[in-house]
Task: structure prediction
Amino acid sequence: MTVLPTDVDRHDPARPAGPVRRRWLGPLADARRDAVGALLGAVLVAAAFLVPHLHDDTVTPVVDPDRWGYYDFADAAPLFGWRLPHLGWGTPCAVVIAIAAVTWGPALARRLPWRALLASTWLTALGWAFALAMVDGWDRGFASKFRSPDEIPHEVPAFADVSRALHEFARRVPDHQPDSWNVQVAGHPPGAALVFVALDRIGLGGPTWAAIVSTLVGTSTVVAVLVTLRALRAADLARRAAPFLALAPAAIWIAVSADAIITGVVGWGVALLAVASNAATRWPTAVAAGALLGFGTYLSYGMILMVVPAVGVLLIARTATPLYGVVAGALAVAVAFTLGGFWWLDGYAAVKVRYGQGVAADRPYAYWVWANYGSLLCAVGLASSAALARVFSWPKLRALAPLHVIVVAFLLTVLIADLSGLSKAETERIWLPFATWIVAAPALLPPAHHRFWLAVQAVGALAINHLILTNW
Result:
């Protein structure tokens, strides 16, 4: 009589474990690894929040609190905001959206037709972001975000003569001049200001319209991620990622900040590049991808790092054909700005001067070089931390598995940005163009565990948004 493995294990425990035991030991070990990844992420976040209260003069968010005001710039470090538990009428809305997404999100993502999946993911992300913003109230949480004199829309009147503004742009970046740009305009290339100038010219001026547009564009990035994965023949992983993208903690900063617009522009640049990598109409799609990615570098100097994920997409697709169109599109944007009067390298040199004149000079590298990752984890959630061990799977990376390579590429951009020393603090907002893609990593976790990890994401976002009054 043939002895089944279950019989062997039951009657002779001294014998080696059979196939049945290995079938459950493997998943159990993986689950433990996921839990350890999340725990390590939680420890990093906790350390980033606790270390500022040790009052160490070196490892501190701000070296000279008397000059800048510790409460204004470091009260909730590593996040930019203030410790202030609060509720709002957005609270029940956010809770309902979170419960619905956790309960039905994974099943719906598997069954919905593709276009319906894209639409529902975007609408959920939009509702989630708006509900989180409404926890702070309509005015404080949404409508007045762009009303500050430090925000980009405040400088729109200075662009009445766009040509003159572009020619003078780099000169007006350093501080302590009578006509210096405000901190947000000075910290970006002129493309960021021109977006709001264009909105004003078509009748959508003012802080409320700026908030609406930034939220719409920023949340659309979740669709760009799904389109990218499907174009790279990872449609199944796109469906698994959809609920995590829709319920991303990063939504706290997408509604509302100018970086949400940057996130959407470069996100769709990557998506079009992925489509161009296997489409019959590669040339026009590649040119459009290059134009968006090129324009991204005129929205934020840091978007020059998008070359890393762009190369990753081409590696996954195993083609360099779209590269010609991408370069042509990016060069067209660069030529337009240069002929218009702005030279990118002059602007970059000037912004480094302005960076040293502001609070960044008193934000020590010793704290922010690692605490930045704490703020990033607040934006991507502990489920992303749990998935990192699965992301760094050498066999998958060697095989150029799409989601693995994309997440690693964006993690590399984060590493470069962090080590540069030009991303000290506020990275929960500044790194949104990178974070939104990292949020897809939990798709690699076992589908049976997705509801649990979605709940972790939702609880984390709700806790941050209700315990901290974020500046953005």
